């Protein structure tokens, strides 16, 4: 995905959740992206807001949203279900953009021109560019109404940011019993002779394979490194 594709996915959603850190406490608010170019994705806020202070102090933001419906339906058993759609998130480094720079961009792009007009109307407003980030489109069709599997996960990055691998991996400890493949409702595990492989594009990291494997051959990987799994009152 290039940056125009990424912006298009966010823009189709409209209002997005923007997360920052206030010292060590997460904070969120609703805002939107208003433009993109080769340098990144652009959004505005006012210098009078806590959002601005957090952006300046950390130099980072995380953005996410969901399309087309954020509604949770419930099936006849009362279980939550969702209409097909996608979520998208991006996390990375931001920089403040000077008004004069924005004016220059506005000469060839109506979106930046409108951004300049907005700042002229509200002088406390300023612009940020998310210029180095990684993220993912999580395209879901849980009822498999339009394809043979539930998920299509598309990782992306821009500005030189690598995409860290996060997911599940089958190790050499695999006995070849096939229990993980039988339990994977996301159809993310395939078999090639005696080798079982997880496709990260389809994998929800739901953990079913991890819990059923008789030989602890399924590994959790977070940011490229093996991680352990622990939850309150239960060590798996
Ligand atoms: S359940 Fe474990 S041992 Fe069995 S095929 Fe899957 S990874 Fe291999
Ligand atoms: S974590 Fe869940 S979705 Fe991913 S391979 Fe294992 S069982 Fe399938």
Q: Your description of this structure?
A:
The chain has 236 residues and is of the alpha+beta class. It has 2 domains: 156 residues, Pnp Oxidase, Chain A; 61 residues, Alpha-Beta Plaits. Helices cover 21% and strands 40% of the residues. The chain is built from 6 helices and 15 strands. Strands 1, 2, 3, 4, 5, 8, 9 and 10 form an 8-stranded antiparallel sheet that branches. Helix 3 packs antiparallel against helix 4. The model has no long low-confidence stretch (mean pLDDT 94). Bound molecules: iron/sulfur cluster (2 copies). One iron/sulfur cluster binds next to helix 5.
Write the layout of secondary structure elements.
Blueprint: H1 3-13, E1 16-22, E2 25-31, E3 33-37, E4 40-46, H2 50-58, E5 60-67, E6 73-74, E7 80-81, E8 85-97, H3 99-106, H4 110-121, E9 125-140, E10 151-158, E11 167-170, H5 179-183, E12 189-192, E13 195-198, H6 208-212, E14 218-222, E15 225-227
Antiparallel strand pairs: 1-2, 1-5, 3-4, 4-9, 5-8, 6-7, 8-9, 9-10, 11-14, 12-13, 14-15
Helix pairs in contact: 3-4
The structure holds iron/sulfur cluster (2 copies).
Short overview:
The protein has 236 residues and is of the alpha+beta class.
Question: How are helices and strands ordered from N to C?
Answer: HEEEEHEEEEHHEEEHEEHEE
Shape: elongated
Strand content: 35-45%
Distance between the termini: 37 Å
List keywords for this structure.
binds iron/sulfur cluster, 40% strand, alpha+beta, Pnp Oxidase, Chain A, 3-stranded antiparallel β-sheet, 236 residues, 8-stranded antiparallel β-sheet
């Amino acid at each position: 995905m290039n940056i125009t594709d990424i912006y298009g996915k966010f823009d189709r959603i409209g209002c997005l959740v923007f997360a920052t850190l206030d010292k060590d406490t997460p904070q969120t608010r609703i805002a939107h992206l208003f433009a993109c170019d080769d340098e990144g994705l652009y959004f505005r806020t006012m210098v009078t807001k806590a959002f601005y202070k957090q952006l300046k102090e950390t130099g980072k933001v995380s953005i996410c949203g969901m399309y087309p419906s954020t509604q949770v339906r419930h099936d006849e058993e009362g279980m939550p279900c969702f209409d097909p759609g996608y979520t998208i998130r991006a996390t990375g480094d931001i920089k403040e953009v000077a008004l004069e720079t924005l004016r220059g961009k506005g000469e060839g792009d109506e979106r930046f021109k409108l951004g300049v007009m907005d700042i002229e109307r509200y002088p406390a407003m300023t612009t940020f560019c998310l210029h180095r980030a990684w993220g993912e489109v999580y395209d879901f069709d849980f009822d498999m109404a339009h394809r043979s599997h539930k998920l299509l996960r598309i990782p992306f990055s821009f500005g030189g940011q690598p995409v860290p691998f996060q997911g599940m991996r089958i190790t050499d400890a695999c006995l070849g019993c096939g229990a993980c493949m039988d339990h994977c409702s996301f159809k993310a595990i395939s078999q090639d002779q005696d080798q079982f492989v997880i496709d990260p594009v389809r994998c929800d990291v739901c953990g079913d394979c991890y819990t059923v494997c008789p030989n602890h051959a399924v590994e959790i990987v977070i940011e490229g490194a093996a991680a352990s799994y622990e939850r309150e009152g239960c060590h798996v």
